[in-house]
Design goal:
72 residues, mainly alpha, 5 helices
Length: 72
């Protein structure tokens, strides 16, 4: 799983952009763009960014992972 791409898709699905996320996390927009281009990041940062996008981020992630496991 490319976590940066996953977060980018979540941003788009919720009608937000990188600037919006940067404003809410106190990060620089360019720094955040680099993170979202990365396939890996620390789990805590991944969760923090995801929960900023959607407070129910972990529930949605779990459902997708379970659905993928059932199909695989």
């Amino acid at each position: 799983m490319h976590v940066g791409h996953y977060l980018s898709l979540e941003l788009e699905a919720h009608g937000h952009d990188v600037r919006w996320l940067a404003e809410r996390t106190g990060m620089e927009t360019e720094q955040l763009r680099l993170l979202l281009a990365s396939a890996n990041m620390e789990a805590a940062l991944f969760v923090r960014l995801g929960e900023t996008i959607d407070p129910h981020f972990l529930q949605g992630l779990e459902q997708r992972m379970l659905a993928g496991h059932a199909n695989g």
